[in-house]
Amino acid sequence: MTIYQKKPITIAVVGDVHEQWEEADNSALEGLGVDLVLFVGDFGNESVPIVRKISQLSVPKAVIMGNHDAWYTASGWGRKKCPYDRSKEDWLQDQLDILGDLHVGYSKLDFPQFNLSVVGSRPYSWGGPEWKNKGFLSDRYQVSSFKDSTEKIMSAVQETSEQNVIFLGHNGPAGLGRDPEDICGKDWQPIGGDHGDPDFSQAIAQSYDFGKKIPLVTFGHMHHRLRHTRSRLRTRVVTNAEQTVFLNAACVPRVIEENGHKLRNFSLVSLDNNTVTDIASVWVDAQGAIATKESLYQEPVLSSIY
């Protein structure tokens, strides 16, 4: 049985932050009047102050951590660069303590007021077909393979209260293209290849089999400006046969200055009857007024033949 939304809602997706967040960003989002905010991670290199500001946003929200959010913890080379005394401080854990249940990596948040659940994929993802940071993921999450990771994501899916699931990842799922311009395509040397997460794509496929409707899968990590060319931007939206819309929200940098004023980027997703009807990339001022708007997706209009 399909459960329909009580009313259309607007979801703001925040791409990779990379230290570009201040109180004015909270004000801008609140000024936009969105119903739900999803953060794809990479707030900074274990940036506790940024995460604290985001946690104070008054709008309903869900968060997943990116690879930069475990920059000094997940790998041996990162720990060597760590700027703090790890015997006395743990910035990664501080971030998690601030966020609490808002962090949906390998977890979920139910939003019954929207007839939606948000499920997080593997947190701290670097992307690609190689299983990285083995010790970190094993110690923290007891996963040692893509198969284990898929099972961990699916445990969260099975605990959701709503039939309609939005997936939130830092990196996107595998299977969406191998060209460097594709939504998760590898745009550095050697050029080309699918840099999506295999465990994420498997969890999405299993969720369909489990009877979940997935209107939206959103993520970041793979920046919209390509490294190998300036002649075009990365593909940011694709769809599949199940009418799921995949959105890469990593517009980096997400804050620019124009005529002496800062403008902030958000992706606005319109959801009606559990279907994505519109996606726009907007640049807004500190009050939430939209300065520019670029349409990224509109629901296809089905024509009738009589």
From TrEMBL:
InterPro entries: Calcineurin-like_PHP (IPR004843), DevT-like (IPR027629), Metallo-depent_PP-like (IPR029052). Pfam families: Metallophos. One of its GO terms (molecular function) is hydrolase activity. It comes from the Bacteria. Residues 10-224 form the Calcineurin-like phosphoesterase domain. PANTHER family: CALCINEURIN-LIKE METALLO-PHOSPHOESTERASE SUPERFAMILY PROTEIN. This is Metallophosphoesterase. It comes from Crocosphaera watsonii WH 8501. The lineage of its organism: Bacteria, Bacillati, Cyanobacteriota, Cyanophyceae, Oscillatoriophycideae.
